[in-house]
Design brief:
This protein has 308 residues and is an all-alpha fold. Helix content is 61%, strand content 0%. Helix 6 (107-130) packs across helix 10. The N and C termini lie far apart (75 Å).
């Protein structure tokens, strides 16, 4: 008996084949998480290379914080893998079922989808800074006062629950397959991992003009008044140039990383949930219901008394 046939016999007799047939479409739909799982060892290796270069500079790297960053990222990947199938996938499937067009996958449509996905990311990312409900999840990524490759892994496990992914649903409604939307999104995040570093200076001017680069992204992570809430792009920086949110890194204005209300905690739960706590505490203050609810969609700095 051929070896492969022996394998098939073991698989058939295990009784798991029906279960796998149920699970496999879920895994196929979540190709983005599969990409992250494959890419994570690469991320770890690249960070270790960077760490060896900057390990003597506590301003740029702290081993304990870096480990915490990877744990925060692992929590994000876990909740996405467990809950996307019951929260976001049905919405994408419904939109694709009622799609306006049948768009085949070919090099031209793949490039178009790549650009459109990044366009959606720009608005999702911009909203994540200017809508407090979305900021409550995104703030975790910005709360570190250091910039290195581990910072890219500093993600919030609540992302799947706050609905920011809805910005990509129109792509499925147009006619792009949700699997390929997820692949483009995942590859975009893989690209963005590599722009979280202080070791790379400015690149060739045309690269800096078109693409998001380490220089542009250092500005995005700054809390300096001249830099804050700028450079929202994912892969491309042209949307920031087009919509007036681009700011160039300046030699006379060193970047100060972090958020304006720092939270110093080693707890993963605190790092994930502190802004939700503050937001609901603000909503609990006395006042008309309409004013209370505004804390959900107003910018993070908005206060009912007019102060910031």
């Amino acid at each position: 008996m051929a070896l492969m046939e022996m394998f098939r016999d073991v698989w058939r007799d295990s009784g798991l084949a029906p279960l796998w047939q149920t699970v496999s479409p879920w895994l196929a739909l979540d190709e983005r998480q599969m990409i992250f799982v494959v890419a994570t060892p690469v991320f770890i290796g690249v960070f270790l290379w960077e760490y060896l270069r900057i390990r003597h500079d506590p301003v740029r790297v702290d081993p304990r914080e870096s480990l915490r960053n990877f744990l925060l990222g692992a929590g994000y990947q876990t909740t996405e893998l467990l809950f996307a199938g019951i929260i976001s996938f049905p919405v994408f499937a419904l939109a694709y079922h009622h799609r306006l067009l049948d768009i085949p996958l070919n090099p031209g449509t793949a490039v178009l989808l790549w650009v459109l996905t990044d366009f959606c990311f720009y608005w999702f990312h911009r909203g994540s800074h200017r809508v407090r409900w979305l900021w409550a999840a995104h703030v975790t990524h910005h709360s570190s006062e250091r910039m290195n490759f581990s910072t890219a892994m500093r993600q919030n496990a609540t992302n799947i629950f706050n609905g920011g992914w809805l910005v990509y649903v129109p792509l499925a409604l147009i006619g792009f397959n949700p699997v390929w939307i997820g692949v483009c999104y995942a590859l975009s995040l893989v690209y963005q991992f590599f722009i979280h570093t202080t070791l790379v200076g400015r690149l060739h001017p045309w690269i800096e003009w078109v693409f998001n680069t380490p220089s542009h992204h250092r500005v995005h992570h700054a809390r300096n008044p001249d830099y804050i809430d700028r450079n929202y792009g994912g892969v491309f920086i042209v949307f920031d140039r087009l919509f007036g949110t681009f700011t160039e890194e300046r030699d006379d204005e060193p970047v100060e990383y972090g958020i304006t209300r720092p939270v110093y905690s080693r707890s993963l739960i605190v790092n994930w949930c502190h802004e939700y706590r503050d937001m609901f505490r603000d909503m609990a203050r006395r006042g008309p219901a309409g004013q209370r609810l505004k804390h959900l969609w107003k910018p993070p700095e908005w206060r009912r008394d007019g102060n910031r």
